[in-house]
Amino acid sequence: MPVRALRRFTAILVVPFALIAVIAAPLAAKSTVGPVGLTIKDPLLVTQAGTFGRGQGWAVSGLAFSVTLDNGGSWRVITPPYVAAMGDPMARLAGFDAIGKEDYWFAAEDVFLPGPAVNGSLRGSVVEFSTDGGHRWGASQQFRTGNGIEMSMVTTKVGYLLGGPDLYETTDGGARWEVVGTAPVQGPGGTIELVFSDLEDGWAAWGGSLYRTTDGGRSWGSVALRAPALYRRLGRTIGAPRFFTPNDGVVTMRFYGTADGTQPIVVYVTHDAGKNWAAVPAPLDPSTRALQKGYPADDFSAVSMTQWVLYVGPRLYETADGGRKWSWTVPTPAWTARKILGIDFWSLDDGWLNVLDNTCTPKQAAQLGVACIDPVLVSTTDGGHTWTAMTQ
Predict the structure, then answer these.
(1) What 3-state class would DSSP assign to 77?
(2) Which residue, 131, 152, 280, 316, could crosslink 323 as a Cys pair with Cβ 3.0–4.6 Å?
């Protein structure tokens, strides 16, 4: 969800990789920015959000699933039928994928399904799909696999889905799914992230491990990503890689368990379809001490093979040369690390941020007896200097 989002203070970052063969990361400061005064009259409250093209994205809350094709200028509710009938779309969303502006797939879990009960339950999972931008929806066969679906569409016809221990493939746009293999790992321990870079090459991230298939999921092998020497004894989490061409991709690994509590991020880069990976350190920010351990780097977004954005909070970092040099700024308003839920940029200027923010006045908060902190979706078109709250 995947969902896949600057001021003074001159500083030089010393990345603790001087003793290992990785790219150094000197840091430069950006110019000062003044207050932007984020005002939210009717905020778009979301639990998850992501983009699927320039200015094109989706957002889900407990009330609706919506898409925008104009960078949040307008939103259209397209909650699929099974999800709408059950209610609470954010709890139903297991995965969303889109190709272009018209073809959407919504993997829904824990919805009511027609037919006899299985193991005493009428609930299960289903993939709802649309070829006209969400105006009309079709549905796949039912999956009685419980929660935990991961989906990756490769073309408008071919895609893959992990449901329980099984890997399914569709060749007709999502109407029918057939078992072609099994998940690379079994048992408890967290969600598996799945992404296919072409019809045969797929990747699965689980905890601190990365797995790859080259035969459409029929078999899997583990991928060895060598940790920098200083981090080899640390815990780690990894996300699914993002490929920009069949050969060129990046994946991030976050380490935890350092003596000072910081959680370093290392970006791994491949130019040979994943046969070899080079480690590139991201800026080591002290604010990462506040992050919950064991989660992937949702504060990192790869625009291209060389353009990356990292919003740790309150600092926002960016590089245009693959991590050789980084610059940073502090947006106004500045959110702390624990309030940043996820970022998604499609250029170094344009991106979205899902952030916890105040959505009512202090007087309203006092009357309600709550802090009025909700996930809010905001956007930038100037590299993070100013942010605009997306509204309903």
Answers:
(1) strand
(2) 280
pLDDT in tens, 128-143: 999 999 999 999 988 7
122-158 CB burial, b ≥16 within 10 A, e <16: ebbbbbbbbbebbeebebbebbebeeebbbbbbeeeb
Q: List the structure tokens of 277.
A: 């990976």
**HSE (CB half, 13 Å, CA atoms) of 115?**
10
CA dihedral sign of residues 202, 204, 304, 44: positive
The H-assigned helical ranges of the chain are 81-86, 89-92, 362-368
The answer to whether position 182 is within a domain reads yes
Contact 309, 6 (CB under 8 A): no
Does residue 266 form part of some domain? Answer: yes
Q: Is the dihedral of CA 285, 331, 382, 8 positive or negative?
A: negative
Instruction: Give the residue ranges of DSSP H helices in 93-152.
Output: none
Confidence of residue 291 (pLDDT cuts 50, 70, 90): confident
Q: How far is CA 278 from the centre of its chain?
A: 22
Q: Return the structure tokens found at 85.
A: 């009938």
| CA 317 vs CA 74, 282, 324, 338, 343: distances in Å | 29, 9, 13, 17, 12
Closest CA relative to residue 339, chosen from 331, 347, 349, 351: 331
> Which three-class secondary structure state does DSSP give residue 365?
helix
Pairing outcome for strands 326-329 and 27-29:
parallel
From residue 148, alpha-carbon distances to 48, 91, 383 in Å are: 16, 12, 35
Residues near 233 by Cβ (< 8 Å), separated by ≥ 6? 257
Note whether residue 21 is domain-resident: no
Full domain range(s) for residue 90: 27-389
pTM exceeding 0.85: no
Q: How far apart are CA 201 and CA 287, in angstroms?
A: 36
CATH value at residue 173: 2.130.10.10
Residue type, 293: K
Query: Would you give the DSSP letter of residue 391?
Result: B
Q: Which two tokens stand for residue 270?
A: 């491949």
